[in-house]
Amino acid sequence: MRNFSLSRRSMLGATAGLSALTLGACGTAGPGSSSGGGGGASASYWALSGEPNETIYGDSVEAFNEGDQGTIDLTFFQNDAYKQKIRTAIGAGEAPTIIYGWGGGGLRTYAEESQVDDLTSWLDENAEYRDRFVESVWAAASVDEKVYALPQGATQPIILFQNTAVLEDIGAEAPETWDQLLDVVEKANSAGVAPISLAGQSRWTSMMWLEYLLDRIGGPDVFARIAAGDAEAWLDDSVIAMGEKVVELLDASAFADGFESMAADSNTDQALLWTDQAALMLHGGWTFGSMKASGGDFVSSGRLGYGPFPTIDGGAGELANLVGNPCNYLSVSSAASDEEKEVALAFLRDGAMSDQVATDLIASGSVPVIVGQEEALAASEDADYLQWVYTSLQDAPAFTQSWDQALQPTEAETLLVNIEQLFLGAIGPEQFAENMAAGKGA
Questions:
Q1: 10 is in which domain, residue-wise?
Q2: Residues sharing a CB contact under 8 Å with residue 158, sequence separation 6 or more, in sequence order
Q3: CATH number of the domain that 39 lies in?
Q4: This prediction's pTM
Q5: 3-state secondary structure string, 54-78?
Q6: 376 within some domain
Q7: What gap in Å lies between CA 226 and CA 210, rounded to an integer?
Q8: Residue 418 and residue 195: Cα distance in Å, rounded?
Q9: Has keyword Signal (predicted)?
Q10: Is there a single domain that holds both residue 306 and residue 407?
Q11: Which of 83, 126, 352, 409 is deepest in the core (most CB within 10 A)?
Q12: Does 377 reside within a domain?
C-alpha cells in the first residue's frame, strides 16, 4: 500500500480509475488498512481533492502521522466521483475507516443500516472536544438524537458572488431583489458577457438556485416538510412558483452559454467569474478559497463581491435566510477493525480539526466551525469577507441544509435527475413537482 505522501501526489485530479484499483487491493477496510506507522496500526481516509482544503487536510494527516497514535492513509477524489464511489464501497463493505460526508439524509441511511458507528458515548467521554465546536453543527450529524459523525472544516453557506468590475462596466448593481437580478441579466446580455455562471452538468449547482428560490417564495418551512418525509409538500404552490422563476431565467438567457455541459469539478464556472466573463455566480462559500488560490488577483484586486440571494416580491423568505452546508462531517465505518477505529478516533480528536487546521482554514478564506475564532477572523487578510460570513451565520433566521444532503440518497438522486431536466427545459414546473411528489425520475 502506498504511504500517504506518494498516494497524495499520485491521486490528484484523476482518482476514479486508480482509486478503484487501490480499493480492491486493500480488503474490507479500504485503502490504508495495512499496519504501519507509529503505534503499529493504520486507518484509511478518503477526502475531496481541490485546493486549498487538499493541502490543509493533507498537512493535518502528515502532522498526525508524525506522532505515535498510528498512521492515516489518505486518498483524494474529485467531488462527483467520490459520491458514487463511497456509496458503492459502503454497500460492498469496503469503505475506508473514515467516511467523509455531509450529514443529513445520507448519514441517516448509513446509521439505519448500521454502516457507521454511533459516536454519542465517545463524545460524552470527550466533552472537551465537543465543546470546541459551534452548536449548530450537531443537528446534521445526528440521527434520532444519536451522533454518527464529527464536524470538519468550515461552514459553507451558498453565496451570490459578483464580479464588481463587470457590474460596474454594464451599469448594474449587486442585486438584492428579483427585479434587480433581472436587470443584471438584461444589461449583461446587452454587453456581451454572461449574466450568471453556472456549471449545470453537475446538477447540484443548479439545485442551489432552487433552494434559494423556494426559501424566498415559500419560506424555509416548505422544504422542512419535504425533508421530514411529507412528499405532498412538493406540490405546494411555492414549488410551482419556484420552477416558474427558473423558466423565467432560462427564457431571459440568464446562464452562460453552454452551462449544461459545464462541470463544477473543473472550476470552469469560477473561471468565468474571475476572468471577467460573467457578472454573477451562486456557489458555496468554499469557492472563495479556490478563487483566491487560482484566480490570480481577482480577490486581492477587490473585483470579487458577495452578498445574499435576492428577495422576491410577496415571498415569505427573508433576505437573511441561508441555505448550504453547516460544514462537512467524518464518520467511522462499522466495518473497520477495532485497531483501525482506535487510530481513526485518535485522528478525529487530535488531528482532523486541530488548532493548526483552524488557522489554515482562516488563512485560506474560510470560517472554521470552532468557537472562539473572532480575533483570528478579524486579523485575517480576508477579514471583510470572513466577518461577513460569520455575521451572516449569526443573523440568519433559518439555515436550510443543502437538499441533496438533507434527503436520503434515493430521493436525492431523483431530485437531481429532475433538476437537470427542468434546467434543460425538458420538463416544466408542474411536471417537476409531480415527479418529486411521486418519487419519479424525469
A1: 4-155+327-371
A2: 208, 211, 212, 282, 283, 284, 285, 309, 322, 323, 324, 402
A3: 3.40.190.10
A4: 0.81
A5: HHHHHHHHHHHHCCCCCEEEEEEEC
A6: no
A7: 14
A8: 24
A9: yes
A10: yes
A11: 352
A12: no
